Amino acid sequence: MAVKDIFEAVLSMDMPGIAAKTQTELDNGTDVGTILEDGLISAMDEVGIRFSMGDLFVPEMLMAAKVMQKGLEVLKPHLSEGQSQSKGVVVIGTVKGDLHDIGKNLVAMMVEGAGFKVVDLGVDVDSDNFVKTASAENADAIALSALLTTTMPSMANTVNAVKEAGIAAKIIIGGAPVTKTFCQEIGADGYSPDAAGAVRLIKEIVG
Amino acid sequence: MNLNADVPCRPRYRLLDNEQLQQLHNATLEILDKVGVSVKHPEALEMLRAAGCRVISKTTALIPEYLVADAIRSAPSYITVFDRNGNRAMELGGNNVYFGMGTDLLNSYDIDTGKLRKSCLQDVVNAAKVADSLEHIDFIASHAFPNEISTNLAYLAEFKAQVETSTKPIYFTAAAVDDLEFIIEMAAAVAGGADELRQKPFLIHYAEPISPLTHSQGALKKLFRCSDAGIPLNYTPALLAGGTGPVTLAGGLAVANAESLSGLVIQQLYRRGAPMISGISVTPIDMRTGNCIYGTPDERLTHTASSELYHWYGLPVWGEAGCSDSNALDGQAAMESSFQVMLSALEGCNLVHDVGYLGQGLVGSLGSLVMCSEIISYAKRIMKGFSLDTDHLALDIIKQVGPGGNYLAEMHTVKHCRTEHWLPENINRLTHEVWAKAGGKTYDEVVTDKARDILKNYKPKFLPENVLNEMDAIYNRAAEDLIGKQLDT
Fold first, then answer.
1. What is the pLDDT of residues B255-302, one digit of tens each?
2. C-alpha distances in Å from residue B192, one per residue of B83, B198, B226
3. A177 with A152: CB under 8 angstroms?
4. Which residues of A touch B291 (CB under 8 A)?
5. Residue spans of alpha helices (H) in B134-239
6. Residues A149, B106: C-beta atoms closer than 8 Å
7. pLDDT value at B244 more than 60
8. What backbone torsions phi and psi does residue B364 show, to the nearest 5 degrees?
9. What digits encode the pLDDT tens for the residues A136-178?
10. pLDDT per residue over B67-112, tens digit each?
11. B414-428: string of b/e by CB count within 10 Å (b at 16+)?
12. Which residues touch B115 (CB under 8 Å, ≥6 apart)?
């Protein structure tokens, strides 16, 4: 039962071992889809459950996601188009004027860990850049972050720019000063007070 | 002869010895010299290059040890801050401890309804009024953020509301150098001119580098402007251990200290002798949620290390206390605030801000401000120690009363009964029956009622009408200039 080993490798954050274990399983002739579903993906589901119960901490969850990604790299050449598809594309960044990115980074890593393709534009991102990237990547969601009250107006500008450009992607916002009311005021599609909530939110609006 | 007989005993507290301080300092120097700091202000970067720093990328400068040593030497070791009337209010330096408020809380407990809601300008006025009346709050800050005002004007509005309401020194933030300019102009109007303001600054500006190891253009512009105006600057990072810095406390301290000291280097290169209150904040990210937290003992250890490090440098040091992670004025708030205040006092941290914060820096409470003032009073009593002189050792009266007597109505007791013991204002000392009869209020209710009472009955000292008019004119000009403008944050 070696697919179980892959499942365990993700849960135990076995970064050095995951690639070899995944390769061995492929070499043994196990179905790629089975390795993906029962090994890597179900491990991340379990990680999510353990995190929400408080048994896993944020860095442990992120490390498990990295291990999962590394296993996925081994599988990728063998996956069919349908299997290798991400759950969706999320463009993320800190809005114009704001250089604080720890919250954005946390959300980006967690969203990636949940199986989405994340295009991280970094900090101090102007609305044009969000618009262009979302369009080029055919994004499902755009996630905006701000820590400073002074940069919250940039969120509103970005929401307007995205809408004016006719981009269909849903816009979600977050950051310490951001509230649900503010989200409604500027016409964004969703808001989460924390990173775990942001992942749930993206799953809801993209799924 | 006992030479110490007249010297009271006082509590002492020390975390790091000199070798350990040197070890932290060496780690800081290695970071500055080998990793460097990102300086997103081209002139500042050029200044560093000209002074001897190696610039290894578009924005990254490596800072050699001698520039750090020069900066520590040239920065003032004491900074006197005045009140609105030009009286000496705080001597920041040595082991002097001053407690005051924090800025810009987005949510506030409404003093009338008790409900949590978005903060507004009236919350800033109320906080200034309550703090002005509280004996143990040495300096004020906005406490709340006026959400209803355009952010480009909000910090000026905060400053105006505070200086109109309280005479205490003001610790303030600004969105960018653009609104800072108007705040300085307003302060000069109150002080009687720019030179008078430089002579007797009654305000301290709070700007910050961004962890890890980044100086934004906006923050450095503020740093330069304050240095030009002779306004004491608090330029200190808030590093999140495990997020924007190493998870370990020692590693977090070294990175954050590199941020502070590189800020000091930039300031002292720009204007030698300009006043800076430095220090570091290293607080963990809560590893279960990713939230930024204030009330943890880990943060208290790094806080003490920061105080000791800057005492060792001979520089004024900043910190925080009375800031709880609890969302309500409850047992957790009291516990966290008490530890923070007591340890800050023991450390001799000079400028202790954020008093009255709740909810991880997102929730304001006037009741918390009143509570913390009493916690500070409590800590001060402990710091006062007690006297061991002949009168206080009281052997004469002990012999007189002898075994089995009592001391209640003795002259020695009468003489000392108002000064030897701490006398709280809001703490309950009634027995349960009497307490219940008097309304049975819990401490959070008592301090919140006290805040209400202050708001109703306290009469702050107002500014002369000509100054108020001048401030209005400055505010109106600022509104024309700033609204809708893209600021360099």
1. 999 999 999 999 999 999 999 999 999 999 999 988 889 999 999 999
2. 13, 11, 18
3. yes
4. 194
5. 151-165, 177-191, 194-199, 217-229
6. yes
7. yes
8. -100, 150
9. 999 999 999 998 888 888 999 999 999 999 999 999 999 988 9
10. 999 999 999 999 999 999 999 999 999 999 999 999 999 999 999 9
11. eeeeeeeeeeeebee
12. B109
Q: Inform me whether the C-beta atom of residue A58 falls under 8 Å from chain B C-beta atoms.
A: yes
Residue of chain A with shortest Cα separation from B145: A149
What are the two backbone dihedrals, phi and then psi, of residue B327, each rounded to the nearest 5 degrees? Answer: -90, 0
Tell me how far apart the alpha carbons of residues A115 and A194 are, in angstroms, rounded to a whole number. 19
CA distance B411 to B414: 5
Q: Does B321 touch chain A (CB under 8 A)?
A: no
Burial of B389 (0-12, 13-18, 19+ CB in 10 A): middle
**In the predicted model, what is the mean pLDDT of residues B467-483?**
97
pLDDT at A84 over 80: no
Q: Hey, what's the torsion of the CAs at B467, B468, B474, B476, to 10 degrees?
A: -160
Which amino acid makes up residue B239? Answer: L
Half-sphere exposure of B163 (CA within 13 A, CB side): 33
User: B256 to chain A, minimum CA–CA distance in Å?
Assistant: 15
B289 burial type by CB count under 10 A (0-12 exposed, 13-18 middle, 19+ buried): middle
Half-sphere exposure of B115 (CA within 13 A, CB side): 3
Q: For B380-405, what is the mean pLDDT? A: 96
Beta-carbon separation of A99 and B210 below 8 A: yes
| Helices assigned H by DSSP within B208-248 | 217-229
Which residue, B87, B86, B81, is CA-closest to B191?
B86
Residue ranges of A 145-184 with Cβ closer than 8 A to chain B: 148-153, 176-177, 179, 181
| A-chain residues near B220 (CB < 8 A) | none
> Is this complex scored with an ipTM above 0.90?
no
| DSSP strand pairing (B107-109 vs B363-364) | parallel
**Parallel, antiparallel, or unpaired for β B60-62 and B37-39?**
antiparallel
CA B33 centroid distance within chain? 30
Judge whether B195 and B228 are in contact, CB under 8 Å: no
- Contact partners, residue B122, CB within 8 Å, separation at least 6: none
- Span B433-472, pLDDT tens digits: 999 999 999 999 999 999 999 999 999 999 999 999 999 9
Q: Do the Cβ atoms of B487 and A179 come within 8 Å?
A: no
Q: Read off the pLDDT of each residue in B190-198 and give the average, rounded to a whole number.
A: 97
| Contact call for B244 and A195, based on CB within 8 A | no
